[in-house]
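Milestone 3.1: sequence recovery, worked example.
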């Protein structure tokens, strides 16, 4: 993982902290999202503290403070960004239909030397050379053999692995025999057929070529239909003759006819055989053209271009360019070097030619054509690469080479100029090279076959003279520089679709890039990547050069860092063979960049894990991980058993376990993920891990500071417990664990789940809680019987609570039923006290997990609650199907019964018919019907909603839609639908019902009949078993399932992920009460086993985690370039700079105003707003003109008219107002249960925009982003939510949840109706410590110093004021206590100017100024409201506080507001504000807020807002002049 940093250091990129390369930095691209997930980081340094250019050195730092809850995990909650179906990347392996692999080749030469064909009139002089041999310099038969031998050598220079068969002047019979033999040898692979017809007549327009009879007295025509029959398909055909276009065109006609007949008569070809149209053709000229006869060129110029391109290119260059020193063609043909040695002149030219032709083809041809022709077969790639040179040369001689498939013209491509420059640079050194190279003479070249290919000159220099040092070409250096310029000068920036954007796939209507950019879906009009640089194929060629390799790899790493589209491009071009071979290099300097590139390749195309395994390349990364360097192993084992075992043998598992304690949180995270993938569905590795206690080590890591690490650890534990880490369903728990005893194996699985549950049940990160549910679902699936027992026990007690004392049982009390069943079950273990205690503890552990699961079903984060509901409904469905449902212990509840607390029509609980379970499936017909009591409530989740009064969770589609104003004419159900809280950004969790039935009419009628038919009486089927019998049966069934699992893999084989199916029974025998079988393994002969636990239910467990895919997105998103918000000149950057400058201006102005405000009047009217209902909590933004209001219906509003409800509904509502424009910006529901209200309201991250933080009386903290629609940041979304306090105590007059936010340290202090004060850390999203209040009354207010101090002040309902110090031990944390107040402390505030002083105010109207360094008596006192005080607040910038009087029966129409200076004895302003009440309210609008009005100072400006009971909000300012 640290490879990104190494690459940056190599490139000289600006330095970043280690955490800035973390998984969070990728999603914090939009403004307000630049924090890191590294818990140790304290400031954002991305682009702000690194090296700066002269253009931006003077610009201010745009990110002065970390914006909390703005990391990637908060925007996605561990869900990978959705990608549309059209975002598929182009296949790069050449696996498209029509892939060719050449098996052999026929080289047919029809020259008939010394005899000219009748239809050819040769000029004098005329081109004579055939394969660089003059046929007239040797006897005809010798010349023919020399030409054939040379031709074979030239083809072998293209590909040595293919056997070439020269067929010299063949007769018809020989040609037929050779062709049929070649096809038999090639089988289904490709045959190459080369035809040179320079000694026979031109092909006929009907598609006939010519050969000879046996006596060479006649030309024999051969139809292409016959050639196709002999050679079959596929094939590569090269036609080097005049009028070659006839052959190409007729071949296409015949091939189409053959293919059409095959599909018409036989429905296609047999497997392995390709259509004839898939064959490739290269023709020297068009049908009406004749080959050039220029004497300076060889007669087979087309063949020379295809097989010896460097020789013909040098000769052509001499012919078309004037060079000094009288360089002749004969000198050029003696250019020293070896084509295979890139250090020699000849080898370097061949290397440059390959790079240039590859680049021309890449930039000109469609992607699929390029992949098929240039990346499928070495011979085909060489032929078509050299064809580009043939096209360039022969078009100058009025010949148009042709191909099938047809290709765009490339003879005028701009890169040919670079080729000419490379030739010119080389040939200018030729005279000195020849003069000082021994063994090379200036005589004409020898006609010996093969003299024009291979090595030229000698490598040994004369002893008396130093050899000439060849100066290499700067071609590759210049091309690398051009590539670097593209990257460093805006190549990574996005652009609009057009000529400069990434080309569409093969002329289609989309780019080959994902539709998701930075985690957000884009439309066609959005920005897309730029067109890649033309030098990309050249950079890949440079990897072959040792001197340029490191620089090329660094540039490639920068390019693949741009995203998956960039990785796909380099794979399509052909990087994979090069990058695979580099894994064999031992250079330490290549290690970081190689790992960086490989990590991104694996993230984009996981299939390369097979290649890593087959080539042994994974050992490279295993060795790296085993060293002490901070490098990360690319995870190549997912869904790949061979990869798992290979990594295990290479001790990767051990290396990862050792890295779990590393200081880098990313290394810890990926080490845990690697462990998860290695032992996923692999029993042998799980056994190995258990022997070394890896599961215990992982559980200890659940206290890690990084939420990503905690999630990764839970992911690893989930795969250990049977969750699927790849594509499978999962299951089978921890596997066989054959080395452990049965009971030890059982205890281990329970201990893992229990330890993880207790460790992270209170985690503030919903991503962590989601992973916990996946882990719990694994335990539920394997030990479902225990959970059914826990569900029954919980249900019985819950029903007793709901029915109350008036519904007494007919025969038993509730305590007697559960307690007696438990006692009887434990008595079954006889006198074995150890077994009794063990089973009691184990059942207690299951019950603990069950209770946590219940809490998670009402989790405030929708995804967590939905997943928990899936697990809980599965358990409850098992309970419905178990014999517990037939126990006639209690009479059924009346139909019209309503639980306590469900008041009238406002109850949010769903009925049995509204439950997801009852909608989709009634109880299975094969099972007996449960009693009315159990049947009436089909989902524990719905029951819990009854108990907690929670609002219904929206569906996935509804939850994505932001709230909008609803007309008052809508029905109550419509209003409820509009009252849902905002949805998270990626709300992808789907509820999975445990029931499934095909949607057929018969099934629908059966379901309707099941619902409408009267329930079966519990007494209809007599039962003769007790609850303890059912408990024993269910527990025993779980053990049988474990034994079957252990037997199924006793040899340590890989887990299949299935185990015993649902409803599977062990053994046979008589029917049990649940239509199952009795256990033959049980100690009790009459204990039912297989009690319907899972029979007929959907296999919805274990849950599927998307965390690994989310983590892999790290390797598909840019790491080495600046974010858009850090790019000077970008919209985000400019907006951020403007905000910072604006904020600094506000601070400067308010500091000046604060001095004047202490002695000025505070009665200047600013704005009057109207919100419906009581505005009980308000908060003002420090820099933006935003006012956040929470009313008594707990709607949060920001900004004009909005929905007026006739009576309060569930959930808290808020609005946000722009008080300068007097308009509402937004409003939404908070989602807290009925009967609770918002008791704390804050706006955090105000420097960079703002996130609204609310605390409600249910103990939940919720955070919302994008509340200002004018900024166009997207829809209003819930960022996060968590239960900040579990220990909420019931008091007659409580304060709900009281919170204090400290932006400078990211600290959240939580108190309220609890005897503890909990400290949360926003960096780590964990609770830091719990401090005991040592007080029996509620916490009413908390305030902390905004500096670096660790002290904070707490006010209590009994009048106490205490000072806490977080640095001290818990018992010593209370450093001061003040007892002057004797009533509810309304608020406490620090003195804005004097350190160590603070003010407190009580409802009795007493205001005290304290000095923590002084005595326990107040330094100053005010008694401003004798009839009582309603609100108190202190301005954070100036020594001014304000109070409002309490409403009394004698004075409720007006309220007195007093603004007072600390340094002055008389008030600055006194206002009498009308309340708008016509009668005195008997009680406050909220049971948690003992006031009817609200008050809030502006954090910076000299303003304050007052909210009245009639819904009016008055904003008033200070008269500064």
């Amino acid at each position: 993982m640290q490879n990104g940093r190494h690459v940056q250091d190599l490139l000289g990129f600006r330095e970043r902290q280690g955490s800035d390369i973390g998984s969070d930095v990728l999603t914090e691209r939009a403004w307000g999202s630049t924090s890191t997930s590294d818990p140790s980081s304290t400031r954002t340094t991305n682009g702000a503290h690194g090296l700066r250019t002269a253009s931006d050195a003077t610009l201010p730092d745009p990110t002065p403070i970390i914006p909390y809850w703005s990391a990637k995990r908060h925007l996605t909650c561990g869900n990978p960004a959705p990608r549309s179906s059209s975002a598929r990347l182009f296949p790069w392996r050449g696996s498209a239909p029509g892939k060719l692999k050449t098996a052999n080749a026929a080289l047919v030469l029809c020259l008939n030397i010394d005899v000219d064909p009748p239809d050819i009139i040769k000029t004098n002089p005329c081109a004579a050379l055939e394969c660089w041999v003059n046929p007239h310099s040797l006897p005809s038969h010798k010349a023919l053999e020399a030409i054939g031998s040379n031709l074979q050598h030239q083809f072998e220079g293209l590909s040595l692995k293919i056997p070439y068969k020269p067929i010299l002047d063949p007769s018809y019979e020989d040609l037929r025999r050779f062709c049929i033999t070649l096809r038999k040898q090639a089988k289904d692979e490709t045959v190459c057929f080369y035809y040179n017809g320079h000694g026979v007549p031109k092909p006929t327009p009907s598609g006939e070529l010519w050969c000879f009879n046996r006596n060479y007295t006649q030309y024999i025509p051969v139809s292409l239909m016959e050639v196709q029959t002999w050679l079959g398909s596929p094939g590569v055909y090269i036609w080097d003759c005049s009028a070659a276009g006839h052959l190409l065109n007729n071949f296409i006609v015949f091939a189409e006819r053959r293919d059409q007949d095959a599909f018409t008569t036989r429905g296609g070809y047999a497997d392995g055989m390709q259509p004839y149209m898939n064959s490739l053709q290269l023709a020297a000229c068009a049908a009406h053209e004749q080959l050039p006869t220029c004497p300076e060129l060889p007669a087979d110029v087309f063949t020379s271009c295809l097989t010896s391109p460097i020789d013909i290119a040098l000769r052509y260059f001499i012919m078309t360019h004037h060079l000094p020193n009288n360089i002749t063609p004969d000198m050029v043909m003696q250019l020293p070097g070896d084509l295979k040695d890139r250090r020699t002149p000849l080898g370097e030219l061949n290397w440059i030619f390959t790079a240039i032709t590859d680049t021309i083809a890449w930039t000109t041809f469609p992607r699929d054509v390029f992949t098929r022709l240039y990346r499928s077969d070495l011979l085909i790639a060489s032929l078509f690469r050299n064809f580009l040179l043939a096209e360039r040369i022969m078009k100058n001689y009025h010949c148009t080479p042709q191909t099938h498939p047809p290709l765009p013209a490339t003879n005028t491509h701009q890169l040919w100029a670079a080729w000419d420059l490379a030739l010119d640079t080389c040939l200018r050194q030729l005279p000195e090279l020849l003069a000082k190279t021994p063994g090379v003479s200036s005589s004409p070249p020898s006609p010996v076959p093969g003299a024009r290919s291979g090595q030229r000159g000698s490598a040994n220099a004369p002893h008396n003279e130093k050899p000439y040092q060849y100066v290499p070409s700067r071609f590759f250096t210049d091309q690398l520089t051009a590539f670097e310029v593209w990257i460093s000068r805006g190549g990574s920036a996005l652009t609009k679709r057009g000529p400069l954007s990434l080309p569409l796939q093969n002329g289609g209507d989309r780019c080959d890039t994902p539709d998701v950019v930075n985690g957000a879906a884009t439309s066609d009009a959005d920005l897309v990547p730029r067109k890649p640089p033309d030098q990309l194929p050249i950079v890949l060629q440079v990897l072959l050069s040792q001197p340029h390799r490191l620089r090329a790899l660094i540039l490639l790493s920068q390019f693949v860092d741009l995203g998956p589209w960039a990785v796909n491009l380099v794979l399509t071009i052909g990087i994979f063979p090069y990058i695979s071979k580099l894994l064999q290099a031992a250079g330490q300097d290549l290690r970081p960049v190689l790992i960086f590139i490989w990590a991104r390749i694996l993230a984009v195309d996981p299939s390369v894990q097979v290649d890593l395994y087959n080539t042994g390349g994974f050992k490279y990364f295993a060795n790296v991980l085993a060293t002490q360097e901070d490098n990360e192993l690319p995870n190549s084992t997912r869904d790949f058993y061979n990869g798992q075992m290979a990594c295990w043998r290479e001790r990767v598992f051990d290396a990862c376990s050792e890295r779990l304690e590393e200081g880098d949180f990313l290394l810890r995270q990926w080490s845990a993920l690697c462990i998860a993938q290695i032992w996923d569905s692999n029993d042998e590795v799980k056994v190995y891990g258990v022997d070394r206690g890896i599961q215990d080590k992982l559980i200890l890591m659940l206290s890690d500071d990084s939420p990503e690490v905690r999630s990764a650890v839970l992911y690893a534990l989930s795969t250990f417990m049977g969750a699927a880490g790849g594509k499978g369903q999962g299951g089978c728990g921890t596997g066989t664990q054959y080395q452990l005893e049965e009971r030890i194996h059982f205890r281990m699985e329970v201990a893992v789940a229990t330890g993880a549950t207790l460790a992270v049940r209170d985690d503030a990160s919903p991503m962590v809680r989601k992973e916990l549910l996946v882990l719990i679902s694994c335990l539920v699936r394997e030990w479902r019987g225990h959970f059914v027992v826990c569900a029954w026990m919980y249900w019985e007690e819950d029903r007793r609570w709901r029915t109350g004392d008036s519904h007494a049982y007919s025969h038993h009390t509730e305590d007697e039923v559960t307690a007696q069943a438990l006692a009887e079950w434990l008595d079954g273990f006889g006198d074995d006290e150890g077994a009794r205690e063990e089973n009691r503890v184990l059942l207690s552990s299951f019950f603990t997990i069950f209770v946590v699961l219940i809490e998670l079903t009402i989790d405030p984060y929708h995804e967590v609650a939905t997943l928990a509901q899936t697990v809980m409904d599965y358990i409850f469905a098992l309970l419905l199907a178990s014999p517990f449902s037939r126990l006639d212990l209690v009479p059924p509840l009346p139909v019209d019964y309503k639980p306590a607390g469900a008041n009238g029509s406002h109850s949010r609980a769903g009925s049995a018919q509204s439950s997801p379970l009852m909608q989709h499936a009634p109880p299975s017909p094969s099972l007996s019907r449960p009693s009315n009591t159990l049947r009436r409530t089909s989902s524990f989740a719905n029951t819990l909603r009854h108990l907690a009064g929670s609002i219904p969770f929206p569906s996935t589609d509804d939850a994505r839609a932001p709230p909008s104003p609803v007309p008052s004419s809508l029905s109550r159900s419509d209003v409820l639908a509009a009252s849902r809280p905002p949805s998270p950004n990626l709300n992808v969790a789907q509820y999975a019902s445990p029931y499934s039935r095909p949607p057929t009419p018969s099934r629908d009628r059966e379901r309707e009949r099941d619902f409408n038919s009267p329930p079966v009486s519990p007494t209809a089927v007599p039962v003769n078993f007790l609850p303890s019998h059912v408990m024993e049966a269910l527990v025993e069934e779980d053990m049988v399932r474990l034994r079957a699992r252990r037997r199924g893999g006793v040899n340590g084989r890989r887990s299949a992920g299935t185990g015993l199916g649902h409803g599977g029974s062990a053994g046979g025998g008589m029917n049990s009460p649940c239509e199952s079988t009795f256990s033959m393994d049980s100690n009790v002969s009459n204990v039912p086993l297989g009690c319907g636990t899972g029979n007929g239910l959907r296999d919805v467990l274990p849950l599927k985690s998307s965390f690994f895919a989310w983590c892999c997105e790290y390797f598909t998103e840019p790491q080495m370039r600046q974010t858009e918000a850090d790019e000077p000149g970008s919209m985000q950057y400019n907006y951020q700079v403007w905000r910072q400058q604006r904020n600094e201006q506000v601070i400067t102005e308010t500091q000046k105003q604060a001095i004047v405000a202490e002695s000025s009047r505070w009665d200047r009217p600013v704005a009057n707003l109207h919100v419906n209902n009581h505005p009980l909590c308000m908060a003002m933004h420090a820099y933006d003109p935003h006012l956040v209001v929470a009313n008594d219906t707990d709607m949060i509003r920001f900004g004009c008219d909005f929905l007026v409800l006739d009576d309060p509904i569930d959930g808290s509502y808020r609005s946000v107002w722009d008080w300068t424009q007097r308009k509402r910006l937004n409003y939404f529901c908070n989602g807290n249960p009925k009967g609770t209200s918002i008791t704390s309201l804050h706006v955090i991250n105000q420097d960079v925009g703002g996130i609204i933080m609310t605390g409600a009386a249910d103990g939940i903290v919720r955070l919302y982003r994008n509340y200002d629609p004018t900024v166009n940041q997207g829809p209003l979304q819930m960022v996060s939510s968590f239960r900040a306090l579990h220990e909420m105590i019931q008091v007659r007059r409580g304060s709900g949840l009281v919170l204090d936010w400290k932006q400078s340290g990211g600290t959240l202090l939580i108190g309220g109706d609890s005897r503890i004060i909990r400290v949360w850390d926003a960096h780590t999203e964990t609770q830091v410590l719990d401090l005991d209040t040592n007080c029996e009354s509620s916490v009413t207010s908390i305030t902390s110093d905004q500096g670096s101090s660790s002290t904070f002040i707490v006010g209590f309902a009994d009048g106490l004021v205490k000072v806490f110090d977080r640095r001290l031990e818990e018992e010593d944390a209370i450093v001061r206590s003040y007892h002057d107040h004797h009533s509810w402390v309304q608020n406490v505030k620090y003195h804005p100017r004097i350190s160590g002083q603070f003010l407190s105010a009580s409802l009795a109207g007493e205001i005290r100024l304290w000095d923590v360094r002084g005595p326990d008596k107040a330094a100053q006192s005010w008694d401003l409201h004798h009839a009582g005080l309603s609100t108190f607040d202190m301005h954070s910038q100036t020594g001014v506080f304000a109070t409002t009087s309490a409403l009394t029966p004698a004075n409720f129409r007006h309220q007195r507001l007093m603004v007072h200076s600390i340094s002055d004895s008389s008030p600055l302003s006194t206002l009498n504000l009308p309340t708008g009440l016509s009668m005195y309210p008997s009680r406050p609008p909220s049971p948690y807020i003992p006031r009817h009005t609200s008050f809030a100072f502006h954090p910076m400006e000299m303003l304050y807002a007052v909210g009245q009971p009639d819904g009016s909000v008055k904003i008033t300012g200070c008269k500064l002049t």
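The longest strand covers residues 102-109. Residues 1316 and 1333 are 5 Å apart (CA to CA).
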